[in-house]
Amino acid sequence: MASGSVLEGRLVAETLLLLLREYSPPGREEGAARVFMERARELGLEAWRDEAGSVYASASSRGPWLLALIGHIDTVPGWVEPRVSGGVVYGRGAVDAKGPLASMLHAAAAAGEGVVVAGLVGEEDDSRGARLLVDRGAPARMVIIGEPTGGDGIAIGYRGSYKLRVVCTSSGGHSSAPWMGDSALDKALSLVDRLREEYPGGSLWRSSMAVTGLCTPMTRNVLPTRAEVWLDARIPPGYSSAEMASKSLSIVEESGCIGEVADVVEPVRVSPSSPVPRSLQRALLSMGVRPRPVVKAGTSDMNLLAPIVDSIAAFGPGDPSLSHTPHERVSEDELEAAARVYLRAYRELRRVAGSSG
Amino acid sequence: MVKCPVCGLEVRIPEDAMPGELIEHDCGTLLEVVEDNGVLQLRVFEGDMEDWGE
Question: Do A101 and A95 meet the contact criterion of CB atoms below 8 Å apart?
Fold first, then answer.
């Protein structure tokens, strides 16, 4: 590896580029995991994997660790050619979330034994990496999640979510006389309207329901006898995803269709003055950056991990509006600044732990 | 101790607070630490917390 400060943006960008060259949609993280561990060892860290396939690195694999920097090694599907141009790194996951993960790895290399960094698998799918931690316990009681927040945002909240699958059936009929027949598709569309009335969205503070799939038998002159609809519900902090899921199932049943709920994730909201968000605030302020508390419309591994740790927040480099787009990019300066914020936040947590213990 | 500009109840500013730090009061108001002639005060944080994505 080239010489220089381990936090130097050019070096973090090198790490990011190596990670980006390994295409790693959920279930295919093997190559990126290998690169992560190789790079961690080049940085002087120990590296290992867990049963889910998630990768870890720290100056000491024994722990205990004061802080866990938890990112994810998978990306959404879709290849974007990795490259560096004019100090900017391009590629699938540059923003969400190999950029934050690269900055975390370099921060861990600078921090010493009190920090462990994790690249979880499956965050963009079933969160199987985070779910294993929920079963086994988090590697530390203080956690920073690596997701893009623009380098000044501190994510203190995420909406919850659940997936709803609906199947409507009917006796069908001839499409020349729909008023005489019985269309499963019409039932499904009416149900979607009803659900959207109940969950109108419009801002992240209101529950929303997005149709993500609709499937019927394709015959041009027959009223469909079966319609299957997939919906993605998002629930703001202060509400219960489980309760909302139960309510939407009741609406489905009232319509005469059959519903099935999966992947229920509760919303999360933490205080900006709790230890980890405060450490991030102070790290940013010490670098002359005004912290910006944010609540996210989406859902992340922070939702799953918040109940099992003492304090948590998400922070990372990169413009979050570029996530999941073909335009993902992050600059060397952003990567370096984020690595410095992670390191300073750790030192702040260590200062507070030392003064209270 | 200073008073919350919204609910009027007392708020403790940490001894090590930095200007610009944000404190959430029990009433739910987000307050920003500001320095006024060397004295730390609180004002209501003005900013939009809504953000897109994960």
Answer: no
pLDDT digits (tens, 9 = 90+) for A263-286: 999 999 999 999 999 999 999 999
CB contact under 8 A, B22 and A294: no
**Which member of A273, A291, A295 has the closest CB to residue B51?**
A295
Residues paired with residue A227 on neighbouring β-strands, in sequence order = A168
pTM of this structure: 0.92
CB contact under 8 A, A320 and B49: no
Q: Are A96 and A105 in contact (CB under 8 A)?
A: no
Q: Tokens 């000044």 label which residue?
A: A152
Phi, psi of B36 (to 5 degrees): -130, 105
| Residue B49 touches chain A, beta carbons under 8 Å | yes
| Distance, CA of A73 to CA of A33 (rounded, Å) | 7
Name the minimum distance, in Å, from the CA of A63 to any CA of chain B: 29
Q: Print burial letters for A266-281: b (CB count within 10 Å at least 16), e (below 16).
A: bbbebbbbbbbbbbbb
Among B21, B34, B44, B51, the strongest candidate for a mutation testing the A interface, having the largest count of A CBs within 10 A, is B51
User: Catalytic residue at A123?
Assistant: yes
For A193, the enclosing helix (H) or strand (E) is: helix A184-198
pLDDT single digits (tens) A123-177: 999 899 999 999 999 999 999 999 999 999 999 999 999 999 999 999 999 999 9
* ipTM given for this complex: 0.92
A234 contacts chain B (CB < 8 A) = no
